[in-house]
Design goal:
Layout (H helix, E strand, L loop, with lengths): L1 H18 L24 E3 L15 E8 L1 H28 L19 H24 L4 H4 L1 E3 L7 E7 L10 H17 L4 E7 L1 E2 L5 E5 L2 E6 L4 E3 L1 E3 L5 H6 L6 H11 L11 H9 L2 H15 L3 H33 L4 E6 L2 E6 L8 E4 L9 E6 L1 E5 L1 H4 L5 E3 L20 E2 L4 E6 L7 E7 L5 H10 L7 H28 L4 H14 L4 H18 L2 E3 L3 H6 L4 E4 L1 H5 L5 E9 L6 E6 L7 H9 L4 E3 L2 E3 L2 H10 L2 E4 L14 E4 L8 E10 L4 E8 L4 E9 H7 L9 H10 L2 E10 L6 H5 L3 H4 L5 E9 L6 H10 L3 E5 L4 H10 L12 E8 L2 E9 L5 E2 L1 H12 L6 E6 H9 L3 H4 L3 E5 L3 H14 L2 E5 L5 H6 L2 E4 L11 E3 L5 H41 L5 H18 L20 H27 L30 H21 L13 H19 L4 H5 L7 H11 L25 H26 L2 H9 L10
Parallel strand pairs: 21-33, 21-39, 33-38, 34-37, 37-38, 39-40, 40-41
Antiparallel strand pairs: 1-10, 2-3, 2-4, 4-5, 6-7, 7-8, 8-9, 11-12, 11-13, 13-19, 14-17, 14-19, 15-16, 15-18, 20-41, 22-23, 22-32, 24-25, 26-27, 27-28, 28-29, 29-30, 30-31, 31-32, 34-35, 35-36
Helix pairs in contact: 1-2, 2-3, 3-9, 5-13, 8-10, 9-10, 10-12, 13-14, 13-31, 14-31, 15-31, 21-25, 31-33, 31-34, 32-34, 32-35, 33-34, 33-38, 34-35, 34-38
Length: 1247
């Protein structure tokens, strides 16, 4: 080791001398100056940090440092690897020498050792063991920076490798984690800062393009070296920005432009270096706990415990390999989803060429055709339309119609919801391309490629998820060091009780440490998660993050999207309510349900004002439009089916009514639905009279604002709100008649703004009903009964949201009276204020009065009161600081945008562990942000959620919580079991050390061999049938956990002392068969520790130890609040019963082959014969497996039957006391007393 340290020191001096004359700033990316001009400023811009691109903040917190491969450093790194292997070989040689592989050493003659004598061999092993431990811990501590240490730091302009330092963000904290968890997080932060560990370090190679341009790729993003700016940076290209600009760019790129863009943004692939089996193995098996496990196993192998060493090695390796396989499978699944390779027609240099999809760059003009393959880029349509299947992205089952952008310089193209109807997204399928003219291709301009496409962002979110902190994990960071310190204390006690400070005492102490902190502990803690994941998958719920299962066990708030989640997919057409304008002020007529009875203006509106197109004989488009058009029973065609195309109207579409003898209608032009406007417009012509009309359809609020006020019935708003409050989805129609003097071509050329301004008459309301799923109400009731607060976050109307919330039981009355709901919306006269309206009578109330009512309602002095807010009101309340105080009184959040949904979920996360349930579409961001997100969809976008369900029932949320609570409870049971395993062995081991006795190898194998199956069997408990009102604890150092473990330790110690007292009481009773001091371990070689088992002290303590360890598993298996109950865990009952039967047989049986294998109730033939003669027993004196040598003065350790029965009864009594303590004190009476005596401050909320 000293040689290696010298090599590294010399290399450090060489490395330092080479780098000291270069300025520090030359090694790193130069900071960007506001005045610096990019070498590509004509076409290229820095990635917009405020955009929705996946490269948001890619430069924030990143630091690049240049390196080159150093031959001297390479040699030094090889010596480090070689030294690591040499250390392993040295330990292996020492272990093999212990077993006389090299010298024929036979434990009784120590004159022929390679290391001269056994004491020297053990001393060399211990020293080597400590050196190896320090060596590997040191390597682990510098693992991230090892490549940079052995590389030569050079100016960034000369680098062949770049070290990327990324600021380590604090994990998203869970609310109310407690003092211990907060202290751990603060301590971690201070340590990272003190040791300059605030950045993660990744070394990436520098690549060079064919033109000599240098770049690196980090987290799927290409960073190109800009020589003028002096830094690596990501680039993007301007496409548009106005609709007119897009049309001007529809001539395509030149080959030179395309090549430049390829160099700057890279090919159209998601650049992620997939892990090989080797790299995945290195990542898995270089963890800190694997070092601990390895060092424990070396001591086991050395000190004649290689039997269980081999078993645990196999368990640990197979567990690690299983995790590697799951990791690689998941990664391959994501990457197979990420990239598609095919060919596409591209307009380059003014001519069409067929290129690989990997060669596409932003700005390319491509032809859109129907295909069975996914679209490989994000694009915007500039000529012609398309029908797309976006179900894999949004979960929307119906195809979506896409329209080209208009040649309008006044409209700006943005890659957001406002231009969704013009945009094609990577990952969708094009079902039909609709040419604007026969024989003309459908054109689209590529707006994004690779990782910055909508699909690329999705993949990047999966590959680089945000970390979430959980109280369970934070407490583990305290528990492990505590156990190590306690193990060291037990090591010292072991040396004292053994009466020696030699090498053998160290081995005994190390065995004690490995028992206190079991090498199996990390594996057992995740077994419950793995089992729960398997059970969830059988129920159609896929989990992509095992840690989120236990986290879901603590969910307190469940947020739900409405449409498609609580309600059925799509809407059912209900009818219309027309506005009568004949004589006097307009008024509403009755609600009509039959299309044939509708007034002509409404029939024409329903036939034409939509985005429906035909694919074969099936109408496709927005599901509302499709449902409305189906109600007309009309047929949609193209011009030419019945009449020649009108001159100057290239987008002409024909509609053929089938009822009321209505004539065909011509759709001259469509202006698609825009989210910012919330309505769409069509220009139509009635060929029977030649009149032209502009029909508008959209939300009532928007249509009301642009209509002539004189055309609105006085009660229009009240009527619309009434329908919404009855659960209807309300749309409004309006119509504008085009003046007779305008020709068809002139009308078709009118701008949208002209058509939608002036002379617009309100026509009526169109009503749809979104029905609840049949099991929604039952599922929400179980969630509420299970202590979860259920909340709705929807983009729908607030009245509809409240109605659905009442229908599904989200808003409900209680014993204090009928529920009262107040709706919050912006004050139309002051957009910075929120007006609160009582839904019963429409009266308003001030916010101060509302707060008083809420305070009274919380304590039962007033009717139950719930709030509902719109998205705009939510943002105002958030800005003025009121929303956090009203959060747990607000049940419905309506008209929420995707960003609003994310903010709302995060707001709840500040208060409690929060889950989100949606369909994976516009709520994908909220699903990803939540502590636990479940998508009721199989769409690819649902992969951002931690769980996705094939079954679209809300009961999937119930199943998830049942399994999650069970998994969390089981994880704690397994944790406490392994802690108890270590403490039993430690404390009763101290008693054995006091008497200088031990257990046989077979007994040790039985102990460790039963621990693995019992730990596994504990996890086989199935969840309770219904959710309990409470949630299982997640605090490893919480009062319940500590009292449970410490109380059982004390009870077991007491029973251990009673067992020894019983044994020593036999000196003066029952024939005086036990003699004090008959066995004296001082006369035996403690290195041959199994020989110390052939005595009564070792036998009695050994039997009790095994009983207590097995009992611990049974006691921690008690509980039916979150699990189905002890006796319904058949796997555990079978395993526990088999081990208990074996222990009972060993304890109660007369000498036989089985008992002698465990050195219990056994002896040599001569000793048994003498015992038969002395005590009148009739034990068998000769049988298979009987030892010829027994390491005790009497030659046996056969206990009288009466003592065996008493010992067995003591073990059973121990079990009963433990059960009584766990069931009575910990789980029932004691828990109730503790909650009353030491109440905790908990979050008050209404389920």
């Amino acid at each position: 080791m000293s040689v290696e340290v010298l090599i590294l020191f010399v290399y450090y001096l060489i490395k330092t001398s080479r780098e000291k004359n270069i300025p520090e700033k030359a090694f790193m990316n130069a900071p960007t100056s506001p005045d610096a001009k990019s070498a590509f400023e004509t076409d290229v811009e820095l990635q917009d940090m405020g955009s929705s691109s996946s490269t948001n903040a890619d430069m924030n917190g990143l630091r690049f440092t240049g390196y080159r491969t150093d031959p001297v450093g390479t040699i030094a790194s090889i010596t480090v690897i070689a030294t690591s292997f040499i250390w392993m070989i040295l330990l292996a040689v020492l272990v093999l020498d212990y077993y006389a592989v090299f010298s024929g050493f036979n434990f009784r003659d120590e004159s022929d050792l390679l290391f001269n004598d056994h004491e020297l061999l053990s001393t060399v092993f211990i020293l080597s063991w400590h050196f190896v431990l320090v060596w590997f811990l040191g390597l682990k501590s510098i693992q991230e920076k090892s490549e940079s240490y052995f590389g030569r730091r050079v100016p960034i302009t000369e680098a062949t490798m770049v070290q990327v330092e990324k600021k380590v963000l604090d994990a998203v904290a869970i609310a109310n984690m407690g003092v211990i968890a907060d202290w751990v997080r603060a301590t971690e932060s201070r340590i990272r800062k003190a040791f300059k560990m605030e950045h993660s370090v990744t070394m990436v190679p520098v690549h060079v393009t064919s033109n000599g341009r240098r770049y690196i790729e980090f987290e799927c993003v290409r960073y190109v070296y800009d020589e003028r700016a002096g830094r690596f940076q990501p680039f993007s290209f301007s496409v548009g920005p106005t609709f007119a600009d897009l049309h001007n760019q529809s001539g395509g790129l030149s080959t030179g432009d395309a090549h430049l863009r390829t160099e700057l943004v890279g090919p159209n692939v998601i650049a992620f270096p997939a892990d090989t089996f080797y790299t995945a193995m290195v990542k898995e098996f270089t963890g800190i706990f694997y070092i601990y496990q390895m060092m424990c196993l070396w001591t086991w192998y050395y000190y004649a415990y290689y039997y269980m060493g081999v078993v645990l090695t196999l368990v640990i390796i197979s567990s690690g390999l299983s995790k590697v396989q799951v990791f690689l499978t998941s990664q391959r699944r994501v990457l197979s989803m990420a990239n598609f390779s095919g060919s596409v027609r591209v307009l380059r240099n003014g001519t069409w060429a067929v290129l690989s999809t990997a060669d596409l760059v932003p700005g390319d003009v491509i032809e859109i055709t129907a295909s069975a393959h996914v679209l490989p880029v994000d694009a915007v349509l500039v000529d012609g339309g398309a029908v797309c299947d976006e179900s894999s992205l949004t979960g929307e089952a119906l195809p979506v119609v896409k329209f080209p952008v208009k040649n309008d310089a006044g409209m700006t193209y943005r890659r957001d919801e406002s231009t969704k109807s013009n945009s094609l997204y990577a990952g969708c399928f094009v079902l039909e391309a609709q040419s604007s003219q026969r024989g003309k291709p459908v054109l689209a301009i590529v707006t994004a490629t690779g990782a910055v496409t909508s699909k690329g962002r999705l993949v990047k979110d999966i590959l680089f998820p945000s970390k979430v902190s959980f109280v369970f994990q934070e407490h583990l960071k305290v528990v492990f060091p505590m156990l190590i310190v306690w193990g060291v204390v037990m090591l010292v006690l072991s040396m004292v009780l053994l009466g020696t400070t030699g090498a053998d005492a160290w081995f005994y102490g190390m065995f004690t440490i490995s028992q206190v902190l079991s090498p199996l502990l990390p594996a057992v803690l995740v077994i419950g998660q793995s089992v729960a994941s398997e059970r969830l998958s059988k129920k159609g719920i896929l989990c992509v993050d095992l840690d989120r299962i236990t986290l879901s066990g603590k969910v307190k708030v469940y947020c739900f999207d409405k449409t498609g989640t609580l309600t059925k997919e799509g809407l059912n057409f209900l009818g219309v309510q027309h506005a009568l304008a004949s004589g006097g002020e307009p008024k509403f007529g009755p609600v009509l349900n039959e299309f044939t009875s509708f007034p002509t203006p409404l029939r024409m509106a329903m036939l034409t004002c939509h985005s429906v197109t035909m694919v074969g004989d099936n109408p496709v488009g927005n599901f509302v439009d499709v449902e409305m058009f189906r109600a007309t029973e009309g047929r949609l065609g193209r011009s030419g089916e019945g009449e020649a195309a009108l001159a100057g109207v290239p987008d002409l579409a024909m509609v053929y009514p089938t009822t009321n003898n209505d004539g065909e209608l011509q759709i001259l032009k469509r202006f698609e639905f825009v989210h910012s406007n919330a309505y769409m417009t069509v220009l139509i012509r009635d060929p029977t009279d030649g009149k032209m009309y502009a029909y508008l359809k959209g939300s009532f609020e928007k249509i009301r604002d642009i209509c002539d006020p004189a055309s609105l019935p006085p009660d229009a708003e009240k009527t619309a709100r009434f329908h919404a409050s009855e659960g209807c989805y309300v749309l409004a129609f309006a119509r504008k008649e085009i003046p007779a003097g305008i020709t068809v071509p002139e009308a078709a050329a009118l701008a949208r703004s002209t058509l939608e301004k002036g002379g617009i008459k309100f026509t009526g309301l169109c009503l749809f009903r979104n029905e609840l799923k049949p099991d929604t109400a039952d599922a929400l009731e179980e969630l509420r009964d299970g202590g979860c607060r259920v909340v709705m976050i929807t983009g729908d109307n607030i009245d509809t949201g409240v109605f659905v919330a009442k229908r599904c039981g989200m808003i409900r009355s209680n014993e204090f009276g009928e529920v009262l709901v107040f709706m919050g919306d912006l004050d139309p006269n002051d957009r910075t204020q929120v007006v609160w309206k009582n839904t019963e009578d429409g009266s308003t109330i001030s916010q101060s009065s509302l707060l008083s009512l809420l305070a009274a309602a919380r304590i039962g002095n007033y009717r139950p009161t719930e709030l509902a807010v719109t998205g705009k009101a939510f943002n105002v309340l958030l800005a003025n600081g009121s929303m956090r105080n009203l959060l747990f009184d607000t049940r419905v959040f309506a008209r929420m945008s995707p960003d609003d949904k994310v903010m709302c979920v995060r707001l709840h996360m500040e208060k409690a562990i929060t889950a989100m349930c949606g369909d994976g579409g516009n709520d994908a961001g909220a699903l990803k942000a939540a502590h636990s997100g479940i998508a009721l969809s199989e769409a690819e976008s649902s992969v951002v959620a931690h769980f996705s369900s094939r079954n679209r029932s809300v009961f999937s949320c119930v199943e998830l919580l049942r399994e999650a609570r069970c998994a969390l409870d089981i994880s704690f049971a397994s944790y406490k079991y392994l802690i108890m395993y270590g403490e039993i062995l430690a404390f009763l081991g101290l008693i054995q050390y006091y008497f200088n006795v031990n257990m046989s190898q077979a007994m040790w194998i039985l102990i460790d061999g039963s621990t693995v199956p019992l730990s596994w069997a504990l996890t086989q408990a199935v969840p309770a049938k219904r959710l309990a009102r409470t949630r299982p604890t997640a605090r490893l150092l919480g009062p319940e956990t500590v009292i449970s473990v410490v109380g059982m330790i004390v009870i077991n110690i007491i029973f251990g002392i009673v067992a020894i007292t019983m044994l020593y009481g036999e000196r003066t009773s029952n024939g005086n068969w036990f003699h004090c001091g008959e066995f004296d371990g001082q006369y035996y070689d403690i290195r041959r520790w199994w020989e110390l088992a052939d005595n009564f002290e070792g036998e009695v303590t050994g039997i009790l130890i095994v009983f207590q360890i097995v009992h611990a598993a049974a006691v921690f298996g008690i509980g039916k609040v979150y699990r189905s109950g002890f006796f319904r865990n058949w796997a555990f009952m079978a395993t526990y019963g088999a081990i208990m039967a074996l222990l009972s047989v060993l304890t109660l049986s007369n000498p036989n082959a089985l008992t002698c294998a465990f050195h219990i109730n056994c002896g040599t033939p001569d000793a048994i014969d003498r015992l038969n003669k002395a005590s009148g027993t009739n034990y068998a004196t000769s049988f298979f497996g009987q030892p010829s040598v027994y390491y005790s003065f009497s030659g046996h350790n056969i206990m009288p039957m009466q003592f065996r029965l008493r010992l067995w009864g003591l073990a059973m009594g121990n079990l009963l006391v433990l059960v009584a303590f766990q069931w009575g004190v910990v789980l029932n009476f004691g828990r109730a007393f503790a909650k009353k005596r030491w109440p905790q401050t908990r979050l008050l909320y209404k389920p």
